[in-house]
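explain this chain.
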Amino acid sequence: MTATRVLVLNSGSSSVKYQLLDMRDSSRLAVGLVERIGEETSRLKHTPLASGAETREWTGPIADHDAALKAVSAELAKDGLGIDSPELAAIGHRVVHGGKKFTEPTVIDDAVLAEIERLIPVAPLHNPANLTGIRTAMGLRPDLPQVAVFDTAFHTTMPESAARYAIDVETADRHRIRRYGFHGTSHAYVSRATAKLLGKAPEDVNVIVLHLGNGASASAVRGGKCVDTSMGLTPLEGLVMGTRSGDTDPAVIFHLARVGEMSIAEIDTLLNKKSGLIGLCGDNDMREIRRRIDEGDERAQLAFDIYIHRLKKYIGAYYAVLGRVDAIAFTAGVGENAAPVREAAVAGLDQLGLAVDAGLNAVRGDEPRLISPPGARVAVAVVPTDEELEIATQTYALVGENTVEATAE
């Protein structure tokens, strides 16, 4: 039999998200999550989509990522989909930071592992967890290609004029300070899906992608290549997010240290975990914020207004960067589900050819769809993202053609 399956792993510091896909038709065979790794109350949730069986949940101590992946393998094996299956072509790993070096999906070897480790200083929360998942998976299937798909890779096409910060060049290069961007797999997938929705090839389309979730980022994509993005050295820069401040005068940090007598760790926590929507109004769930607005809550209204103001600024900026915009695509949890956000983001931008049809905007669905009026100069679209499929697609494209006929033992 031909090995056509790809297992996608997203390893966090205390969790592992996974999906098993069959790349013959991009169908999902199983999805699941292990969370609270290292605690007595670890939890595994597994849904075997191929068989249509009910979701299985298990709670108990899972000591580490090795135990977590072994538990995942055991659950998959119950459905005849184990990690030891000869039908498994590769394991694709989400890796948050690939720096400048990794511009494409990459088969993992010792040199790749070493470079991901060297990038830990610019991704201290994510790359260590990604490495743990990779090493554990390699231990379970040392014979299988393991592929790293980097969040930053899609943004490596940015010109230096967009990627460089205006600080001393030698200092920047010595400490790898530049705009890297994140959510790259989402921006890649959504920009291509938007072109398909318009009936055009990606190289013929200029699109502004707005990935709006608890983390949020924007990108300007010209002809299928990213030319600018809102997140920078870290995911803190750019749009207002659930708990992150986004763009802030760097002198705020100095002020808080000198006048507020806050430590660097305290400021880091403030800007990354206690700012954004939750800092402005105490909620980072857009549904709750909209409910409060409907009840006349002024703090919620102000938080929403600040969120939209920043979003409009990036739409306008990326319109200027691209020169010609064929479409704006909203994606991720807020982008796909919050009609008021989409409406407010383009309100008053008629001179740029941007508008939404109220009726189309109110429709909910799982498929890519246009919400702009018929004949609009710029298409406004809702395009559900699929980062796992993007990782699986990139992984299989890299190793699939080299996959030999696998025979059952």
Summary: The longest strand covers residues 27-35. The radius of gyration is 22 Å. DSSP finds 15 helices and 14 strands in the chain. The chain has a mean pLDDT of 93.
